[in-house]
Amino acid sequence: MLLHISKDQIMAIDIPRVHDLILVIGDKMTNAGDHQPIPFSGKEYKRLITQAPDTLAVVIIAAADNFDPDHLKATLSQLVGQTMNADAAILLPYFPPPIISHIDYGPARSFAIMNRDCFSAIPIKLIEQNDLETLIYTFTYKYLNSDRTDLKIIQVGKTNQSGKQRPTKKLRHSLLVIPHKGRIDLLNRCLSSLEATDALPSRINLCFDDSSFKKMNLNMFNKIAGRISILKNKPGNRGPYLARHFSAVQTDKEYIFFQDSDDISTKDRFSIQMNELLQRGLDMIGSHELRIDQILKKVMIRRFPWDVTRALSWKDGFHSLFHPTSLISKKAYLQTGGFSTDRSFGYDTQFLLRSYFFLKSGNCDDFLYIRFRRPNSITTSEKTGLNSNFRNFLLTRWRTDFRLIREGCLDLAESSLKVWRHKFAFTFIKINKRNSN
Question: What pTM was computed for the model?
């Protein structure tokens, strides 16, 4: 168990216990099993060990009113090499970034809860969970859909943790673009996480592709309301690319962050990415993603290559950056020609392949983005999903032309990777929601 593992052991990525352990601390658990007292920090806590089919043990440490997390937080901080300053944390075994394309490292298998108040707001009945991975999904999903969106993601064994970042002044010269269509509660979850973030871009464009802006109550987000512009696409129902492209072209900011409206950026995403973009001399930068898979009921670990430009030069390197995690300079965006805008889906990959010929791109070796994979979304529906026939056709065509362009056999301007523009008039309508209910 974690309390019996030395610092040297827990920092070794090949120790199974590092990612086969769940540590939950609280006083409102509903469980069944044998309880034994365990001394910790001079007090007696209770320990419950439950053998699960595919894990070593589930460990729950609980106490009543005398629970004091401070010493435990300090101990965990020393063990994992990073300050445990959140109510909850996902602990991931560290592996270096892949070279060619993204790699899925399977479900998360360890987390820590360090605030007993979580259990009054997020009750969990462990006896109802089928396995450890589902238990972690259940808690994480409920946690992120509560008013507690500050989930810390720690790579155990990483020698150079990013840690707390000093906000860079360059964030004053940046824009965050969030296209939205559909359920307003998912957008509210996204904005709630931004409300809890200390360092943000100075402007946020909320670009509505439908009439759901009518349900928007900006007064719920007083901290960030002054940064937000609510824009309605005209015409609507055209997908995210027109909103992204026109926001980037029309802004007076030097840098542009992208994000999907049903996802969450970590509290330190914007500072870490801006600092690393500047330090590494990059034009565009993304990050790893923690995926809350609502279809598989798992929390999935997905890492991306550190050097995206190098990854794209390989045969199968076309999935080397996830655009909603990205930051790009406006100069670099315009240099590429921007996103194509005549379709409502699929153009992230086309833009990434085209960017190879213009930009120096990379990813942070950090999990800065929490992505929700939902049924019936653009990437999971039968018609527009990642494995749909039409997407596969486009991908085959783009990959073929990418290779021919690199070999000097085809001009980019004559290829399927060129910028494809919409054939109709498009504009933003600015909506004033600041004082509405």
Answer: 0.85
Q: 3-class DSSP state for residue 92?
A: strand
Q: How far is the C-alpha of 193 from the C-alpha of 50, rounded, in Å?
A: 34
Same structural domain for residues 152 and 176? no
Say whether both 132 and 180 belong to one domain: no
Domain ranges, residue 389:
169-414
Provide the pLDDT for residue 38: 39
CB atoms within 10 A of CB 346: 21
Task: Go through 7-39 and write b for each residue having 16 or more CB atoms within 10 A of its CB, e for each that does not.
Answer: eeebbebebebbbbbbbbbbeebebeeeeeeee
Contact 232, 215 (CB under 8 A): no
| pLDDT of amino acid 379 | 65
Distances (CA, A) of 105 to 96, 193, 288, 301, 407: 11, 26, 11, 5, 34
Whether the per-residue pLDDT at 3 is higher than 90: the answer is: no
Total number of domains constituting the chain: 2
107 with 196, same domain: the answer is no
228 and 339 inside one domain: yes
pLDDT tens digits for range 296-329: 999 999 999 999 999 999 876 778 999 999 999 9
Residue 287 lies in a domain: yes
206-262 tens-digit pLDDT: 999 999 999 999 999 999 999 999 999 999 999 999 999 999 999 999 999 999 999
Q: Are 371 and 352 in contact (CB under 8 A)?
A: no
Average pLDDT, the chain: 80
State residue 295 phi and psi, 5-degree precision. -90, -50
Same domain, 249 and 378: yes
Do residues 102 and 232 both lie within one domain?
A: no
From CA 252, how far away is CA 202, in angstroms rounded? 11
**434 belongs to a structural domain:** no
3-state DSSP assignment of residue 253:
coil
